[in-house]
């Protein structure tokens, strides 16, 4: 399987499924810090009442989908916004204005922020942040992608 094959498969998946695959890969690959990567349940549809309750409890528009609370390279955390893959002829998911605004805020105060369009970009981003070579991990995924889904 190639990286392009994975992108084509992921183009058929929801952002939620892609995020699940990425989180599972991370937790299996880095079990010692698995609990430091968590999802922020900001998106999706909800009732007016549940939306009000989320805001009442402190929800903020634009917060990244995933946060890795692990300081590295002078940064206090890695904030990851997941988007659907970019395929030739198709743009893939794009950030909203509130997501861009939140990105600027967290970068200003010492976090790294990335937008990942699928598993390969996620692996590259996480490994770069953790100062690990992504190539062996990507090669493993190319051989074993179907075990992840």
TrEMBL record:
Gene3D superfamilies: 3.40.1350.10. Its cofactor is Mg(2+). Keywords: Hydrolase, Nuclease. Residues 50-118 form the VRR-NUC domain. One of its GO terms (molecular function) is nuclease activity. Pfam families: VRR_NUC. InterPro entries: tRNA_endonuc-like_dom_sf, VRR_NUC. It comes from the Bacteria. This is VRR-NUC domain-containing protein. It comes from Bacteroides fragilis.
């Amino acid at each position: 399987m190639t990286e392009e094959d994975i992108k084509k498969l992921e183009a058929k998946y929801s952002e939620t499924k892609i995020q699940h695959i990425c989180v599972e890969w991370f937790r299996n690959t880095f079990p010692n810090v698995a609990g430091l990567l968590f999802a922020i349940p900001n998106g999706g549809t909800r009732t007016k009442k549940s939306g009000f309750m989320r805001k009442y409890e402190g929800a903020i528009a634009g917060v990244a989908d995933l946060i890795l609370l692990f300081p590295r390279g002078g940064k206090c955390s890695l904030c990851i916004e997941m988007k659907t893959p970019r395929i030739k002829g198709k743009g893939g998911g794009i950030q909203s204005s509130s997501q861009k605004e939140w990105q600027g805020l967290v970068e200003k105060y010492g976090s790294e922020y990335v937008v990942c369009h699928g598993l390969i970009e996620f692996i590259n981003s996480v490994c770069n942040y953790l100062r690990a070579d992504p190539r062996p991990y990507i090669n493993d995924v190319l051989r074993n992608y179907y075990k992840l889904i």
